[in-house]
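Notes from hallway chat w/ T.B., transcribed later so I don't forget. T.B. wanted the structure written out for a chain they're using in a teaching module, and asked if we could keep both sequence and structure tokens in one place. Agreed to drop them here.
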Amino acid sequence: MEASSWDALRKQARKLEAQLDERMTSYRRLVSSKPDGSVADLESSIEHLLKQLQQINLQMQTWVSSGGSQIISHTLTRHKEILQDLSQEFYRLRSSLRAKQERSSLLLEFRDYDREKADIEGGADSAEHALLKEQAAISRNSGQMDNVISQAQATLGALVLQRSTFGGITTKISNVSSRLPTVNHILSSIKRKKSMDTIILSFVASVCTFLMLIYWLSK
């Protein structure tokens, strides 16, 4: 690929990271305060940007695997770390928000339930009382399930990033393995030449010693 392709991918990655950073700042404020109806839209926007950034990182990984330099490889690693940090923080904040919403919902339900219970104890039908208790139990279970699902999504996001990283390592190992036969051939040639040089030097040294011996005996 041409260098401009890598530059274009890096430009897209930086743009998405800047957009994510801006939205995550707004999301942190909403989670720390009382959330309103805009939370769902913001969460959807952040998830969309995270998926886009992940796709850009995968394209950059393909570029590096095709023969990128060590500097480019380090740059890609940094972009992956940024994506992983943003993903983990988003899923952690979302889980915290879900727990907060669940607690708020349960408190509301308990207040409604207490009012209904007072009405029931004042002479309301016992069947309606049972239905209200069942509804409260179902709401609590639903909130717990939402929390578990959020945690599972956070784990899935981390696993996807790890799989992408390991895939890049496997590709690099394959590239190195494909080049090993050529390297081994060069090393074997060097070794053979070194052995031949040693033999020649030994032969020359032996001849010189023999000639010196004959000269010494002839005196």
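Follow-up for T.B.: The two ends are 77 Å apart (CA to CA). Might be a good example for the class.
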